[in-house]
TrEMBL record:
<dbReference type="Pfam" id="PF00892">
    <property type="entry name" value="EamA"/>
</dbReference>
<keyword id="KW-0812">Transmembrane</keyword>
<dbReference type="InterPro" id="IPR037185">
    <property type="entry name" value="EmrE-like"/>
</dbReference>
<feature type="transmembrane region" description="Helical">
    <location>
        <begin position="162"/>
        <end position="178"/>
    </location>
</feature>
<feature type="domain" description="EamA">
    <location>
        <begin position="159"/>
        <end position="291"/>
    </location>
</feature>
<dbReference type="InterPro" id="IPR050638">
    <property type="entry name" value="AA-Vitamin_Transporters"/>
</dbReference>
<dbReference type="InterPro" id="IPR000620">
    <property type="entry name" value="EamA_dom"/>
</dbReference>
<feature type="transmembrane region" description="Helical">
    <location>
        <begin position="133"/>
        <end position="150"/>
    </location>
</feature>
<feature type="transmembrane region" description="Helical">
    <location>
        <begin position="79"/>
        <end position="99"/>
    </location>
</feature>
<feature type="transmembrane region" description="Helical">
    <location>
        <begin position="190"/>
        <end position="212"/>
    </location>
</feature>
<feature type="domain" description="EamA">
    <location>
        <begin position="18"/>
        <end position="147"/>
    </location>
</feature>
<protein>
    <submittedName>
        <fullName>Membrane protein</fullName>
    </submittedName>
</protein>
<feature type="transmembrane region" description="Helical">
    <location>
        <begin position="45"/>
        <end position="67"/>
    </location>
</feature>
<keyword id="KW-1133">Transmembrane helix</keyword>
<feature type="transmembrane region" description="Helical">
    <location>
        <begin position="224"/>
        <end position="241"/>
    </location>
</feature>
<feature type="transmembrane region" description="Helical">
    <location>
        <begin position="12"/>
        <end position="33"/>
    </location>
</feature>
<feature type="transmembrane region" description="Helical">
    <location>
        <begin position="105"/>
        <end position="124"/>
    </location>
</feature>
Length: 298
């Protein structure tokens, strides 16, 4: 077998593996909002976000030390700062604030716009231009999400929605820079160093927030904290960035169109929220959009 034949066989395997990693990330992220609601039973919003980041940073730092990962080159720290600001700090804080007034289901469908936001940021950042078919399917998926959101909220935009739209922008920027860096270093190095870089700030915020926010420890609240720290922030971002590095930011981001629908399922099973009547047709439409974007050439 020639080297060319070997490369031809390896490429589909790598793409399949990258897709599975991205899917694992989406599954982890889909539990974030229900777990955050659980965590808010025990902690205030600032305490919950800061403590989750501290725990995730300690896990990431432990792995980095254990395998003796070298400190990233200076030229990568600017991009790492964008990842830290958007993914580690901005998105968790803004969505947690939103979940104080918005339901999990409502927040999930608004954040469903994240794939299109990420694809747009990536196109601007890298200069790559996905195909018209890709963009058409992505816009259609976003349109379904917008229509579903407006139908659920009665056409009004609340303070919680503003928090969520802000979260979309900062997270899309973080995903884009993280996906670019994951082509230069392992994905878990990217999120690991971003978490470690934020550790001093999160330690200070944790101490201050715990002094003025209420604390009521419950089993469910602690379970929520553990999941958002270990499942969403560490494991989820680790597999997500590895997946993006393999299949590309644009295609990986479109897999996230399924995330709000998965979160709707968890909101019913874990939180007892009533299922929205528009959820089944929205799920079918979004999944069709995902199928098109995965087949379209980026």
């Amino acid at each position: 077998m020639t080297a060319q034949d070997s490369a031809t066989r390896t490429a589909p395997v790598a793409v399949t593996g990258g897709t599975l990693l991205a899917v694992a990330g989406v599954l982890s992220f889909s539990l974030t909002f229900p777990a955050t609601v659980w965590g808010l039973e025990s902690f205030g919003p600032w305490s919950l976000v800061a403590i989750r980041n501290v725990l995730a940073a300690l896990m990431a730092g432990g792995f980095l030390l254990a395998v003796r990962v070298p400190v990233p080159e200076r030229r990568h720290w600017g991009a790492l700062a964008v990842v830290a600001s958007g993914v580690v700090l901005g998105f968790p804080m803004l969505t947690t604030l939103a979940l104080q007034t918005s339901t999990t289901a409502h927040a999930a469908v608004v954040v469903g716009l994240l794939p299109l936001s990420t694809a747009a940021f990536s196109a601007l950042r890298t200069g790559r231009r996905p195909s018209r078919t890709f963009w058409g399917a992505a816009v259609a998926g976003a349109g379904v999400v917008i229509a579903f959101t407006l139908q659920q909220s009665g056409g009004a935009v609340s303070t919680g929605d503003l928090y969520l739209f802000g979260a979309l922008l900062v997270c899309a920027a973080g995903y884009t820079e993280g996906g670019r860096l994951a082509r230069l270093m392992p994905g878990w190095h990217v999120i690991g160093w971003a978490l470690v870089a934020c550790l001093p700030l999160n330690l200070v915020v944790s101490a201050v927030a715990l002094s003025f926010e209420p604390l009521r420890l419950t089993a469910q609240g602690m379970t929520g904290l553990v999941w958002v720290a270990a499942g969403s922030t560490f494991f989820g971002l680790y597999v997500w960035y590895r997946g993006m590095a393999t299949i590309g930011v644009e295609k990986a981001s479109q897999l996230q169109l399924a995330q709000p629908l998965l979160t709707l399922v968890w909101s019913v099973l874990l939180l007892g929220e009533k299922p929205a009547t528009a959820a089944p047709p929205a799920a079918v439409a979004v999944l069709l959009c995902i199928a098109v974007t995965q087949r379209a050439r980026a």
